[in-house]
Amino acid sequence: MALNFISGDNPIMTFLFFILFFMFYPRIMLWQMTYKLENNLIKLKQYSEKSQSIIMQKFATKTKDKKKAKDRLVNFMDFFIVPPVSIDPAGIIPKLDKTIKESDRKVEYVVRDIAGSDIDEEEMANLKMSLMGAMMTNQIFKIFRHFMILIKKSNNLQLAMILQMQIPMLMNLAKANLRATKCFSNGVPIGDSIGPMVSASFMSTKPLEIAKDVVVTKETVEKKTTYFMKAKGPGSRLGEVGDAVEKAIKRYKIDYVITVDAAGKLEGEKTGVIAEGVGIAMGGVGVQRSKIENAIFNNKRHIAIDALAVKQAPIEASIAMKKEIFGSLKRAQDKLKELIRESDAKSVLVIGVGNTSGIKNNKKTLESDVEKLLKPDWAIYQRKKKIQEKKKKSLWYRLFGPKEDEDDEFLGFALGPGGGQCL
Fold first, then answer.
1. I need a surface site. Which of 31, 114, 137, 353 has the fewest CB within 10 A?
2. What is the pLDDT of residues 353-410, one digit of tens each?
3. d(CA 215, CA 116)
């Protein structure tokens, strides 16, 4: 009977069926997508609130007026940066540099205003970076909410489909920023800290602060004078590395520069693999990298430039340093020594690029300190890995894959407090 209904034996009913189908099917799809998007919006709101509560817990120990501190923090979540005009790209780097420095000054002012002027330097650095992570999480939530409201107002199926396609990326980004907020607040190394860690593992002499938040030491590696540079730790900093390199090249007559940084891996590549390349390995908006390139290429001496990259997923760069990344330290050290040994340079500069959260400025007890900080999170990673491997054997997992909220258990708010420093 059902087959006859749409087979053409009853053309009027068939026509009506298709009319009703085309009228209501898009609405059913839109309802289904909206329902799913609203669930994700609730999660994003939880991530945003959790990131703010992490910072508030830190501020609570520094301020007496908790209500005022909370209001100040909530208001600052809407902080924005207006980029300079880029219609004429000439001179854009100094403008960007000025804008970034002003934003850094503003964030520092807010932290001091809430926590007090007597706050410790390293704690200041951690709170500043935590605040930036919380602002990013909040911004993702607000943008998602904005498009959700537009979809409801316009009943736009195409917009809902576009937003739905972005869900995995947005959720992973929000989770990574939430984890990064907690990492920074506790001074725990993240995946991006491997560059500074490699550099610090060679530092045995007293460091000199050569530029704002950047330190350098003079060492002897493979019978060659080698200067090791990184952002000042163990607070969460990136440092003005570009300014530091400009000064180092002039002061120490550098003729060989090696940068060590985290780099995004492709799917299928293993985390912690060391890749060798040429150029300045450095992310960000490009201001510091541009300064380094200008200092090298505008120099009369021929300065060789090599790069080492520790492969990791983009998300892994923002969360507690995984054991595979930590384990790449020895391989990175060996490769670095090999590059220095094979070069003809007399004065070498090694730059550990990245966030130096939890990484001190001396190799003494470096590895044991970092390992101690990361062990609680490694235990959770291991637990998660075992659960996933067990689930992969089930038929349900093979047919439908992992659940979207499967990772929430390890974020430390869905099923109670997390057991790690960052999870």
1. 31
2. 999 999 999 999 999 999 999 998 888 888 888 887 887 777 777 776 666 656 655 5
3. 26
Alpha carbons 52 and 155: distance in angstroms, whole number: 32
* 364, two tokens: 């003494």
Distances in Å between the alpha carbon of 189 and those of 231, 359, 376?
Answer: 13, 7, 13
Three-state DSSP state, 275: strand
State how far the Cα of 128 lies from the Cα of 126, in Å rounded to an integer: 6
- 16-27 tens-digit pLDDT: 766 766 666 777
Residue pair 354/192 in contact (Cβ under 8 Å)? The answer is: yes
State the Cα–Cα distance between residues 370 and 327, nearest whole angstrom: 12
The Cα diameter of the chain in Å comes to 92
* Vertex 412: Cα angle to 369 and 398 (nearest 5): 105
What are the structure tokens assigned to 108, written together? 């520092």
CA distance 42 to 346: 58
* Spans of all domains in the chain: 23-186, 192-371
CB atoms within 10 A of CB 180: 31
Dihedrals φ, ψ of 155, to 5°? 50, 45
pLDDT digits (tens, 9 = 90+) for 118-171: 888 999 999 999 999 999 999 999 999 999 999 989 888 888 899 989 888 899
Which residues, 6 or more positions from 365, have their beta carbon under 8 angstroms from its beta carbon? Answer: none
Bridge-based pairing of strands 347-352 and 214-221 is unpaired
d(CA 174, CA 102): 25
CB 357 within 8 A of CB 235: yes
CATH number for the region 192-371 comes to: 3.40.50
- State the Cα–Cα distance between residues 298 and 283, nearest whole angstrom: 21
CA atoms 125, 126, 130, 131: torsion sign:
negative
The residues that bridge with 304 in the sheet, in sequence order, are 256
Query: Which candidate, 246, 247, 241, 243, places its Cα nearest to that of 260?
Result: 241
CB 367 within 8 A of CB 323: no
* DSSP conformation class of 303: -
